[in-house]
Amino acid sequence: MNDEHDVLSQLVDYHDHISAPLVPLADDLRRGRGRVRRNRGLLAAGAALGVVSMIAAVSLSEGGRSADEPQPAHSPGLTTPLVAPQSPFDVSELGFHIESAPDLSVTGDWAIDRDRQWAGVQVLGGDSNGMELQVEVYYQGRPLKLPRTGTREPVTVNGVPGTYIEQKSGRFHAAMLAWEYAPDSWAAVKAGWIEAVLPSDLRSKMLTAAEAVRPGGEALRVPVRVDTLPESLPSLKAAQEVRLLDWDGNWQWWLSLDDAIQIHATAETGSVVCEADDGSYHKASFTYRGHPGCLADGEQIGLSLDDAQVFIDFGDAEPKPPIDDLKQVLADLAVGTADPATWFDLGTALGG
User: Fold this and answer.
1) Which of 31, 230, 213 lies closest to 134 in space, CA to CA?
2) What SS3 state is found at 168?
């Protein structure tokens, strides 16, 4: 995905599973994408933005506060940079949290990747009621990109200068509020939606979320443990992203081994269905170690386990990993119950 698509997709891709009216639109749009990054339940894994020609992006540092400018004294927000870990194994807890506020509710959604950590909050009340925001904190030295175009205005986050930008491209709308919370260290609040009027209080709600970011976060636990990973697949130590989301009360877990292979799971049970890049659905067609399985040839494979449906997307992998290896990975996944007490710390979940 190029920079033009990446800027807006980061904003929209988390939000397309939130508001019920947006889901059918996202379903239609995803078919324009070069690869499928979700199954039926993992709507938050991406919207189909490949058909949209977006604006060019540049680093925010070109127009931001000087890295040598000190933070204001006694700032209640983040002031200490997050240092990038060597691998996801090294992350035991988020480096930040969102302090409670009357018009915000922390959702429990989160993700970590090579550049940043993020968490989700939902707006309560006002014109933006029900909208979800993605709060991102970048590791020191990792760039945050903002678009050249759009409507922008200066803001202040706990005394620190920042920028608020709104964009529109056809049916797609996006907003971002970004600030340099420490030298060469950036944070942002993002929102994205499709065919909706811009909420009149969105800027205010995003600023409230930005000013609620505090250092120190919760321990990270996930409902899935990877027990087997054949040599035909990328090493877990090189994993690109781990993501945990909630969809209608069911957890959704996502692990990107690299840009070409992703393992994901949802607490849904029942008939397993795979989805191809062209939008076609493929019902269960085989059984592996007693588990019904589906296959969209060369693109996605899935199994129905006792407490979850599990999938591997591998459409972009070259060479293609052996199907038997993929089946083994899915069948050997350890899945916790709905009770987070049965889940795994991140190091254990990734074989650490």
Assistant:
1) 213
2) strand
Buried b (16+ CB within 10 A) or exposed e, 238-260: ebbbbbbbebeeebbbbbbbeeb
Residues 6+ apart with CB under 8 A from 85: 91
Domain borders along the chain are 3-66+78-215, 221-349
pLDDT tens string for the chain (352 positions)? 444 444 444 444 434 333 222 222 233 223 233 333 333 333 333 332 222 223 223 333 333 443 334 344 446 789 999 999 888 778 899 999 999 888 999 999 999 999 999 999 999 999 999 999 999 999 999 999 887 889 999 999 999 999 999 998 888 889 999 999 999 999 999 999 887 778 999 999 999 999 999 999 999 999 999 999 999 999 988 899 999 998 878 899 999 999 999 999 999 888 999 999 888 999 999 999 999 999 998 899 999 999 999 999 999 999 999 999 999 999 999 999 888 889 999 889 987 6
CA separation for the pair 118, 216 (Å, rounded): 13
Helix runs in the chain, H state only: 3-13, 23-29, 202-211, 323-331, 346-349
Which residue pairs, CB below 8 angstroms and at least 24 apart, start in 28-37? 29/194, 30/279, 31/277, 31/278, 31/279, 33/277, 34/277, 34/316, 35/277, 35/299, 35/313, 35/315, 35/316, 36/275, 36/276, 36/277, 36/299, 36/300, 36/313, 36/315, 37/262, 37/313
Sign of CA dihedral 61, 182, 185, 10: negative
First to last CA, the chain: 31
